[in-house]
Specification:
The protein has 107 residues and is mainly α. The protein has a domain at 3-68. It is 38% helix and 0% strand.
Amino acid sequence: MSLKDEWDRLDSETRTWLLENPGCLIVPRAMSAKITKDAHGDLTCDPHGQVVLSRDDHDFIREKAEAAGTIRVPATTEYQFFDTAPVPVIRRTPPGRHAAASPDKAQ
């Protein structure tokens, strides 16, 4: 069973939460309990009782969120993690050349 099939059975609070969190891959336990209580079919849950969203569910929620105006970023094909630091760029000096000294080392 997919979330798309159960959408009309969900209460407005659950639908609002899903629209405000379209990047969620696993629905928290409290929301999962509300979804499975209202669902007529079986939704995939992990061992902790959290609903695991399929790619189709994820796409459906994103489309609904874009239509509702709660998300304005076009979908990407990759998942992005925003809590990671950017990777630093390390420039290497070609062999036989010496890098210029930084202002801090010149003192």
